[in-house]
From TrEMBL:
Residues 9-69 form the HTH tetR-type domain. InterPro entries: Homeodomain-like_sf (IPR009057), HTH-type_Tx_Regulator (IPR050624), HTH_TetR (IPR001647). Keywords: DNA-binding. This is Transcriptional regulator, TetR family. One of its GO terms (molecular function) is DNA binding. Residues 32-51 bind DNA. It comes from Alkaliphilus peptidifermentans DSM 18978.
Length: 201
């Protein structure tokens, strides 16, 4: 890649980051191309030349976001850590993750746009779910997951926990690290507190 191509890629990355920052705070509908251009310090013409339209820019932003989230999850799952620590890190999520995004932006990701819908489905089917299956098999190999519990049930359980973390009720409480530790204990052991494996602290 020559100097011109590198500058072009950096400029595209800056535009996507500016769009992401604005979309995540104000929502997609309320943000104009002019505002994105100002934030990215480029002309509106440059944005149209690179992306064609606001819809195409949104799709690129979502693609970048999904790939970033996938990399973070992959780094956790492939780390040299015991299964409970990996899962706790995965459940914790970073503040800049989905929980921080404007609800309008989230709706845009699952909107009536068939291209966006297909993007989300392809990402889940071909990237995210296979990565989670790897995590679950890791948990079974280490003796933390019962073999009679299906991957589908575990995936639903994890998604329920992560979705709950994004709820207004959860965010309004202002969960401390100590309270989050309690929630993680409930996640692993349930209300009865009967661990499957004594190695889990």
């Amino acid at each position: 890649m020559d100097g011109f191509e590198r500058r072009k890629e950096r400029k595209k990355e800056n535009i996507c980051q500016a769009a992401f920052d604005l979309f995540s705070v104000y929502g997609v509908k309320k943000v104009s191309i002019a505002e994105i251009a100002k934030q990215a310090k480029v002309s509106q013409v440059t944005i149209y030349n690179y992306f064609g339209s606001k819809d195409e820019l949104l799709r690129d932003v979502i693609t970048v976001f999904m790939n970033k989230s996938l990399k973070e999850a992959t780094d956790i799952i492939e780390a040299n850590l015991p299964f409970p620590e990996k899962l706790e890190l995965f459940l914790a999520e970073k503040p800049e993750a989905l929980s921080a995004l404007n609800s309008d932006f989230l709706k845009s990701m699952m909107s009536e746009d068939p291209i966006l819908r297909q993007m989300a489905k392809d990402f889940a089917d071909n990237k995210f779910i296979p990565l989670m299956m790897k995590l679950f098999e890791n948990g079974r190999e280490e003796g933390y997951i019962k073999h009679n519990i299906s991957n589908e049930a575990i995936l639903i359980y994890i998604n329920m926990f992560r979705e709950g973390k994004r709820s207004d009720a959860f965010l309004d409480i202002g969960v401390s690290k100590h309270l989050f530790k309690e929630l993680i204990t409930l996640f692993f052991y349930g209300v009865l507190g009967n661990p499957l494996n004594n190695n889990i602290n």
